[in-house]
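Students often ask why inverse folding is considered easier than folding. One informal answer: many sequences map to the same fold, so there is more than one right answer. In these notes we will look at a single instance of the problem. The structure comes first.
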C-alpha cells in the first residue's frame, strides 16, 4: 500500500509540473503577442532634423541664409546649435578655403579678422553658408573665427591684459573688433571680458565674512524669491550677486 501511494504521489507531481510548464509557455507567448501588438515607441526628433527645417533650399545641396536668422523665434527648432563635430569642421574648412580661392583671397585669415557685411567680401559668408542647411550664418562665422583667427592670446585673462583692455576702451570706446585685432583675441571674448570688468557686482570667491552675512540673512529673512532677489541680496552686501553653493539650515 505504501509503495502504491508513493507511486501515485510521484505521478501526480509530474502532472502538476507539466501543467505549470504549459501555463508558463502560454503566458510567455501571450506576453510576446501583446508586445508585438503594441505600437513602437517613437523617439522625439530634434527640430533641426525634421523635414523642411533649416535654411530654404534654392538648388540641390544649396541653401539661402539671412543675416538675422539666429534671432527668429523658432531658430532653435530650425537650426542645430552646440559644438561642431570633427566632420563638420573638416567640411567647413574645405568649403571656406574653396570659396577664398574662388574669390582670389590669398590669406584665409583676412575675412575672419576683418568681417565685412557689405560689398564683395560679404559674399564669402553667404557663399560658405549656402553649403550648410542646419547651421546659422552667425554660427558658421564664429566657428571660422575660432579656426582661422590668428590668436596670440588664449585661455584665462591676465591682470595686465585687463589693464590693457580698459585703456583701449578708454581711448577708442567699445570698438571691440579693432581692440580684438590689437590684443590677439576674439571680439566676442574681448566684449565679454569688458562686460565682466565693468559690472558693478562683486565677483570672485566669497570671503568668510560674506558667507556669515549670507547665513545670518537667510536665518532672518528666509530664502529669496525671484521677484525680490535684488533687494534680498543687498542685505548681504552683494546686490544682484548669484548665491554661492553653501548649505544653510534655517532656524
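Output (designed amino acids):
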Amino acid at each position: 500500500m505504501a509503495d502504491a501511494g508513493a507511486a501515485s504521489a510521484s505521478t501526480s507531481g509530474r502532472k502538476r509540473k507539466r501543467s505549470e510548464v504549459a501555463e508558463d509557455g502560454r503566458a510567455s507567448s501571450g506576453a510576446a503577442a501583446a508586445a508585438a501588438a503594441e505600437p513602437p515607441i517613437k523617439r522625439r526628433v530634434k527640430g533641426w532634423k525634421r523635414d523642411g527645417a533649416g535654411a530654404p533650399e534654392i538648388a540641390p545641396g544649396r541653401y539661402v541664409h539671412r543675416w538675422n536668422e539666429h534671432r527668429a523665434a523658432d531658430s532653435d527648432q530650425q537650426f542645430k546649435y552646440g559644438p561642431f563635430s570633427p566632420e563638420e569642421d573638416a567640411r567647413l574648412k574645405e568649403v571656406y578655403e574653396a570659396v577664398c580661392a574662388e574669390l582670389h583671397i590669398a590669406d584665409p585669415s583676412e575675412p575672419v579678422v576683418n568681417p565685412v557685411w557689405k560689398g564683395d567680401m560679404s559674399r564669402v559668408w553667404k557663399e560658405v553658408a549656402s553649403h550648410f542647411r542646419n547651421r546659422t550664418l552667425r554660427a558658421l562665422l564664429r566657428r571660422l573665427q575660432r579656426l582661422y583667427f590668428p590668436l596670440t592670446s588664449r585661455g584665462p585673462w591676465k591682470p595686465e591684459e585687463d589693464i590693457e583692455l580698459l585703456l583701449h576702451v578708454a581711448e577708442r570706446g567699445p570698438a571691440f573688433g579693432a581692440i580684438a585685432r590689437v590684443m590677439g583675441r576674439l571680439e566676442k571674448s574681448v566684449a565679454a571680458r569688458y562686460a565682466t570688468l565693468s559690472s558693478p557686482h562683486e565677483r570672485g570667491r566669497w570671503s568668510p565674512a560674506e558667507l556669515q552675512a549670507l547665513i545670518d540673512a537667510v536665518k532672518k529673512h528666509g530664502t529669496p524669491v525671484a521677484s525680490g532677489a535684488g533687494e534680498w541680496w543687498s542685505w548681504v552686501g552683494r546686490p544682484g550677486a548669484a548665491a554661492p553653493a553653501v548649505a544653510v539650515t534655517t532656524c
